[in-house]
Task: structure prediction
Amino acid sequence: MRFGPIMKMDGEIAAAVRGLATRAATGVELMEGVVRLLREERPYYSWAGFYLMEGADTLVLGPYHGKPSPHTRIPLHQGICGAAASTGESLIIDDVNADPRYLACSLETRSEIVVPIKREGKVLGEIDIDSDRPSAFSDEDRRLLEEVAAIVAGRL
Ligand code: SME
Result:
């Protein structure tokens, strides 16, 4: 007897995202499907959302799954989100409360991963995931989310 739902492997999630990218009528529909899928398949992803670049220096909250965030617009010099977008590098924060850059979205959040979405080196936006668990994110999450970001980049 098995207990609880059987979760998809990373490769299956990437394949499901490719399927969504083929079927989705718009980039927004694709991103909505991605955040829902990630929350369903990775229970320690307590919040999953997209931020999209507006002009050269602001991130604007796009589709998300989880509680509403107070941070609907983030300047590039603020937050973990701004740091990842301005460097173009993925960031894993094991303890958000120990990082002075952190902008709190929910009091329960303990760790965070932010992965830029890039096309030809240009940052178009990012995937932001929060977890209520400390040190929730590993290199496997980073690899998976970088693959998802590359698929989404093709539809933005
Ligand atoms: N924690 C982010 C802000 C976005 S919320 O987590 C949804 C940051 O520090 O940039």
User: Anything to note?
Assistant: The mean pLDDT is 95. The chain is about 35% helix and 25% strand. Residues 27-41 form the longest helix (15 residues). The CA atoms of residues 56 and 76 lie 8 Å apart.
